[in-house]
Specification:
Largest sheet: none
Keywords: Membrane, Transmembrane, Transmembrane helix
Order of helices and strands: HHH
Strand content: under 5%
Number of domains: 1
Radius of gyration: 15 Å
Number of strands: 0
């Protein structure tokens, strides 16, 4: 249980760092990156919906689901923060 948590925390840290760097460098010229983030978000969202609607999935899918839920929650928050930061 601790292993997947550590892996997901590492992923989150890397993602947040990348977003901060990208946001700092590109301000307004980051439209392709926005689409990439949106695509990643929708893939995660679809996977979460699939995992919630099909109860008897393999265990490794279950563990992966928590990471997907984190993506679904964190990405819009980060996106909103960067958008507001860019506007200001």
């Amino acid at each position: 249980m601790a292993k997947w948590l550590v892996i997901n925390l590492r992923r989150a840290v890397v993602l947040i760092t990348l977003l901060i760097v990208i946001g700092g460098i590109m301000r307004w010229d980051w439209v392709p990156i926005i689409w990439l983030i949106v695509a990643i978000y929708f893939v995660a969202l679809i996977r979460v919906i699939i995992m919630l609607t099909i109860p008897d999935l393999p265990k490794n899918w279950r563990l992966n689901m928590y990471g997907q839920i984190v993506v679904v929650i964190v990405v819009p928050i980060m996106f909103g923060l960067f958008y507001l930061n860019g506007m200001g």
